[in-house]
Sequence to fold (229 residues):
Amino acid sequence: MSDILLHGASGSPFVRKVQIVLAEKGLAYEHVPTVPVANPLPGLPFPGMTPELRPNSPLGKIPFARIGGRWLADSSVIIAYLDRLHPSPPIYPSDPWDHARALWFEEFIDGGAYPKLFSTIFFERVLAPMLFNRPANQAVVDKAIAEDMPVIYGYLDKEIGSRSFLVGDRFTIADATAASFFRNMQHADAAPDPKRWPNLARYIGQQHARPTIARLIEQETRAMAAAET
Fold:
C-alpha cells in the first residue's frame, strides 16, 4: 500500500493540481476515485463519500488524502505539507516576493476563476448534460463569457507576457494550478482564444506539453473514454 492515498474524482481541477505536484516530485501514490457526496447520481462512475471517510474531509470537499497515516483535506494544504515532507524539487519559490506571487496566482485561480468560470461554463456545458440530463443554461454561459472571462483571461495574459512561467524562471504551484484549471476549460470548449489572448494560449499549451502534465492528461483521457463505454 502506498504511503500516499489521494481521494478525489478525476477531472476535478483541485485533485488534478495535487496529482501534478505528486508527478513533479516523483512521488508514488494511490488514487481512490471519490465524489464529494454520499449518494452519487446514477451513471456517475465514481463512488461517493462514505460515513467512514467523511470525518477526513469535514467540509465534504475533494481532494483529501492520507499521508503517512495522517489525513489532510484541501488541495493547497495537501501540497504545502507534501512540499515540506519532500522539498525537492520545491513547488514554492524561496524568494519572499516570488513566494507571495505564487500563492496569489493559486488563489486567483482557485478562489476567483473557479467560481466565476468553472462553476458556470464548465458546469453548464459539461456537468449539466452529463449528470443532470439537461442542456446548458446558455444565459449563464453567455454572462460568464461576456463579463468574467475577459477579466480573468486578460489579467493572466498580461501577467504571463512572453515568459514561460507565471513566477520566476521555473515551475511552481502557480503553474500547476493554472495548468489544471485550464484543462477543464478545454473540456468546456472555453480555452483561451490565441487571437485574443495569445500569451495565455501559448503558456497553457507549453504547460500541457510538460511531460509530467502530458502523461496525466493522457491517463485522464483514457479513463474518461473507458467510463463512457
The domain at 4-85 is CATH 3.40.30.10 (Glutaredoxin). The chain has two domains: 4-85, 96-228. The chain has a mean pLDDT of 92.
